[in-house]
Amino acid sequence: MSQSPYPAAAGPPRPSLILRPGQMALPAGMERYTVQGNGAVLIEVEAGDTISVRNVEGGQACELLAWDDSGATDAGIFGEKSNSNAAGIKALLADGDDSLASLRLGLERRQVQFDQAK
To answer: Is residue 70 part of a domain?
Structure first.
């Protein structure tokens, strides 16, 4: 009788299993961010980065903000013209939701100026 509680396995180990179905491995240099409804995420982008926004479930409004090194908002960074005054992110931050604490701190650290958002 074997003293080991584990069965002996013949041959090499089995390949790893995907633990999160639908979460495909990304190519090198690509990142994926998921934003919950009524939420926000802070992502640093650099010159040459490509941004793609997908509304998987549909019906969700999305507000993108970009700012330069001085903290001034500038939609031109995305190659677009502004069509909002950042009302969505201002409302989220004014709500005081604790889940946005890291976002709040990140914006403060970068000295983002929402009062001049256009």
So the answer is: yes
Domain annotation covers residue 23: no
Please write the tens of the pLDDT for every residue from 19-64: 666 667 788 888 989 888 888 999 988 888 999 988 877 777 888 9
Q: Is 80 left (phi over 0), alpha (psi -120 to 50) or beta?
A: beta
| Contact indicator for 82, 75 with CB cutoff of 8 Å | yes
Q: Is the dihedral of CA 99, 100, 104, 106 positive or negative?
A: positive
- Hey, what are 40's tokens? 């926000």
pTM confidence score: 0.66
Residue-number span of the structural domain to which 118 is assigned: 41-51+61-118
Question: Residue 99 corresponds to which tokens in the numbers above?
Answer: 């889940």
Question: In this structure, is residue 33 part of a structural domain?
Answer: no
Number of domains in the chain: 1
Radius of gyration of the chain (CA): 22
